[in-house]
Amino acid sequence: MLAGAALAGPVFDPAQDDPAKPWSYFGQTTTMIGVPFMPDAIQVTYDGALFTRQAELCFFIGEPARPFFDRQKQWLDGWIPVVQARDQQDGIRYELELFTVVPADDDVTNTVQLARMRMTNSGTAPARASLLAAARGSGGEYRLGGVSLPPTTRFEMTDDALWRDGKLVYAFPPGGRREAVPGEPYVAPFAAHEYQVSARAEAGCVRYGRELQPGERWELVFRMPRVPTADPAKLAQLGLSLRTNAAGGATLLSPKPGGKSAAAPSEWSSEQSVRDDPPVWEAERARAVDYWTGLVGRHTRLTLPEKRLEYAHRAATAHVLLGTRTFASGRTQTDGLPYPMLFIICLWDYQMLYDSMGLGAFYEVNLPHLRARQLEDGMLLDTSLTHGKRIMSSHGPTLFSVTHHVVMTRDRGFASN
Q1: Residues 266, 250: Cα–Cα separation, whole Å
Q2: Under 8 Å CB-to-CB from 379, ≥6 apart: which residues?
Q3: CA angle, residues 182, 186, 189, in degrees to nearest 5
């Protein structure tokens, strides 16, 4: 039955694939963006959604709207964690690019993600570009984790942002048509139960449409924190802020200069602008590219005649770096999205990769966790693997990783420690 069910799954016609892009075996692919040592992973799903376990930003194209889809999405240059995806509808090419902003202060607690949708008329006649952006708890398939939305969950929209229970979910360019749920105009703050909004349902939508001449393009930039936030410093980074109203409570500000929210009483005001500003996008994108090329290529660079192999090696390094986490117990390596724990049986893999790339410091952060896993008799217990049972599955591989790190780095100080 299981085999039959697997064989009955969707089959994709190879004719729909772009021969200029890497071939993809999987029909519904997912990938990651982020920076090292974030507390949790950030997925870019098969349908182009930005999913953080705390919220999801999703996109729909065309009229009637359908989910954006590109199973051949890829990282920039094949290895830099800037996701690039492309779809086509009614003569319009939709190009989606997403990445995590590199924090200027090294604070990765709640990173900011940027998503740009570029719409281009690829035909010879005028055509209409249509885009719907929306938030939800989780689109379901191929997402790990998610958030529940009680019926009392409250949604508010300003001219440029969606807020959930007083916290920013995402910021969007002004000028779109705001909708509480798809097809229902936004007129006032609402509770989830008023529109039967579940974690799976889209809410806080904004719809854009414009006729484009042949060759004309239109770009829209969206911003999203990993975790919905009302933190003033984080909001300032996103171009938003809060002020205190006469009753002493926090009031959401619409950042559009001179703009009034359709839901806003007279106390609402504007101070800052979330602008669709290509120079800001380009500057942050350049910083992210510089960061990753410096991190992965600063010490060691493997050059091969077959560039896809070369880029695959760098992509593997970037994926391992995106598996690092900061927990209450400190910084550590994990096995990534499906296994967000330190498995010391795998440390020799990570140690060899990091040392070969000149990134030994990323391995060394795990040493305090090894000490915590050492038993009174000196044996190392892989608590993530054995679930509390005394099974010495990982002692040898872990000792190999420590000693091999010393051999590779010649770091006598590390060895004496």
Answers
A1: 15
A2: 392, 395
A3: 120
Q: 307-322 vs 347-356: helix axis angle to the nearest 10?
A: 120
At 312-362, the pLDDT tens digits run 999 999 999 999 999 999 999 999 988 999 999 999 999 999 999 999 999
Enter the tokens of residue 16. Answer: 């729909």
- What tokens does 196 get? 């039967």
Which of helix, strand or coil describes residue 69?
A: coil
- Predicted confidence at residue 280, as pLDDT, reads 82
Per-residue confidence (pLDDT) for residue 62, from 0 to 100:
97
Rounded to 5 degrees, what are φ and ψ at 283? -65, -45
Q: Which of 365, 364, 366, 356 is nearest to 297 (CA)?
A: 356
Is residue 398's pLDDT more than 60?
yes
Measured CA distances, 140 to 45, 65, 148, 192, 337 (Å): 10, 19, 12, 18, 16
pTM over 0.85: yes
Long-range contacts of 251-260 (CB under 8 A, 24+ apart): 252/156, 252/158, 252/161, 252/163, 252/166, 253/158, 254/158, 254/159, 254/160, 254/161, 255/158, 255/159, 255/160, 255/161, 255/171, 256/158, 256/159, 256/160, 256/174, 259/159, 259/174, 260/159
Q: What is the pLDDT of residues 254-309, one digit of tens each?
A: 443 333 333 332 222 223 333 455 668 999 999 999 999 999 988 888 888 988 88
Cite the beta strand spans of 34-125 per DSSP E: 42-44, 50-51, 56-61, 66-67, 74-76, 80-89, 92-100, 112-121
Question: Helix, strand, or coil here: 278?
Answer: helix
Nearest to 164 by CA among 183, 177, 147: 147
Q: What's the pLDDT tens digit per position in 156-193? A: 999 999 999 999 999 999 999 999 999 999 999 999 99
DSSP 66: E
- Nearest-CA neighbor of 59 among 185, 221, 191, 193? 221
How many residues would you count in the chain? 417
